[in-house]
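User: Quick sanity check before I run a bigger batch. Here is a single chain. Can you write out its predicted 3D structure?
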Amino acid sequence: EPRSPCCCLAWTLLIATMNCLVFLLNLLLMFVIFTIVLLPTIVVVYFGFQCHSQVLHSSARYCKSILDDNSSSALIILGFVIMSPLLVVAMAIYCSLARRLQLLVCCQPYSLALYKGGHCCHPRALCSPQLKAWV
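Assistant: Done. Predicted structure follows.
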């Protein structure tokens, strides 16, 4: 049975809000995982750029005594080389966690706002385990 226009608008706003919250949760989870996994790359590239004389040339003690331009260049290159495998690891961790938490299943289609009796009327509709995003 079709919903009234006012009810349809209310359900559409509810579903849009729910989908936005799921999207923001996915984005936050991805940001946290990528930041933690890529932290070694970030640190190595930061110190490489900080101590190189052509870039920032810091006056810190470790830049004067330990790192010269050649070692700073090596740190920059090392940071960018280890970035590729760490990106793969971060994406694998995110995908396995998103699959385990079933975050992608929580997105509801907007067609549920048009008709009464959809999955949204059930208590477990927000994350229905019967729906599968992947096989």
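The two ends are 32 Å apart (CA to CA).

User: Great, the batch can go ahead then.
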